[in-house]
Amino acid sequence: MTEETVLVAGGGIAGLAMARALRRHELPVEVAERGDAGRTGGLAINLPGNAVTAFAALGLGDGLAKLGRPTRRREYRSAAGKVLFAVDEDEFWGARARPRCVRRSDLLALLADGLDAPVRQPLAVSAVDGLDVTFDGGERQAYGFVVGADGVRSAVRAAMFGATTVRASVLSAASWRFMAPNPGVDCWTVWSGAGGAFLLIPVDDTEVYGYASATRGGPVDPDPSWLHTTFGGYPEPVRAVLDSVAKNPESLFHSPIEEIRLPGWSSGRRVLIGDAAHATAPVWAQGAALAAEDALVLAALLAEGDWDTVGARYEQRRRERVAHVQAATDRFSRAAGLPIWLRDRLLPLIGPRTYRETYGVLRVVGSEGG
User: Fold this and answer.
1) In sequence order, what are the beta bridge partners of 245?
2) What is the pLDDT of residue 41?
């Protein structure tokens, strides 16, 4: 590698999107992936309309349209199954930005397909001194620019800013994620009660992606029995999925829901993107969307030149949009934690408006959003 090469630390969605965006501008790039994605590669991801738009801008629109299943409608239900409000996502986003639920492994494969840049794996960044990078095993290399796309536990962020506080989300301290046979759910559907929220999204004709968490910031027990204790009294589709995952515990993945809130995302020629910069609870499913947008904006700025000022210009273009998502996430998380009798009365009134206000801003793509 030469000192004109961009190092992207992290080969997940953010890192591969960054590499693709750079190669579209014919900039040299190398990706270093520590290789600890583990079994989460088999899970799925919900892509709202602005994510679909961002991946299309990376040249992946046709490929993405062949993955997973479109998400045409949302239903927010009570723990008893009553529809509190629903959203016609097809009408809101339109055909060109129709949301989709896809397997994460399929999305990663799409991002990697045809990428003419080296992806070194497993190769973990252990230290970053300016633009001199040390990898596990002692290898050292100088780069022209370093992008930290290495997630919540970012080594690049630690090198830039030292120890960073990782906070638990307002919504829930942790979650369970899983894949299961579809119990008859035909749209994005969440059931929410006093103990927690249970979300199912069809990923194809036979399988759903599931996500379960608390709703008042409390702990989510790493013992799978928490799922039955919390959701065992929910409607039949939920109970059917609980029975299925109980028979296949290897399909379950428990993880904390952690957030990163930083006053700055850059230091010289080092910049953070995606979860390394602004991890946010998945209330509005913006992890992949914001990461891809970050990549598009940062790559375009690097292509313009003057790499010494790119970090400041990148933050200026991205800060307002990310702050909007963070604020919307906190507001909805607090609403979800209200007493159930009050929340179930309020959501039919404020839910549709909150959806429109949150996603309406994200539906507009400009220089700040990729």
Assistant:
1) none
2) 58
